[in-house]
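#struct-help
A.M.: can someone run this one for me? Single chain, 227 residues.
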Amino acid sequence: MATQARQFSFQMPSPAHANLLLTAIRQFLQSCPLATSPIRDTQPHLDPNERVGTILLPLWRQTPLTNTHSSHWQAFLELLRTLRPYLIECSRAMRSTAPYAYDSALRIYQDQLFGGDQANAIPQITAENCFQTLRLSANMALAPHLLNTSHPSFWAAIAAVGPFDYGDVLLTGLGERYQVGTHGVGSDRIENILTVRTALNVQSVPFVGERYELVFFLPWRPSDLGL
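D.P.: on it. Structure tokens below:
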């Protein structure tokens, strides 16, 4: 059977960088609008001031919602800067999981970059990035659903940031459960991420604490094969 999902682990450059990323996410969420997810949220929400919702962010080109004129543009650029370790490690995980899809995504990026308005391109934090969009979801535990974005995508990488316990990711169709997020402390601290086919139903388990889910989407086009 072809690979459906794989888990990977990596270490952040430093505990300080992990704190910078969490701060960047919080500051970004203070300045940007979040949408209510159409998927049922199973997470209890006891704090009326808690940020809850989801937003789809571009990684290659500016959009009507996220561009140089947006009030959250500078916070968005800072978020991308601090996300660099995740962009690198999730891209490497995707290259290991689906190498042809990874190479194809880089070709799609080059075609879009040189075939469109370069003035609207988003500065790339790393040349290894193979993802076109990022869905950031704040403090939700969604019932089984298909991962979705604004472009065709067969593969995604899931990560989670924040001080939380529990909050595992379930692949309900496969009967598999994965720990996604930070585990361990000090020199033993690792970040668990998951590559997964977007055709699978994904569920987030309720958690205790503060949890921000990052889903990076790999682009696809009909001419691609072997995905």
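A.M.: thanks! The mean pLDDT is 93.
D.P.: also worth noting: The longest strand covers residues 190-197.
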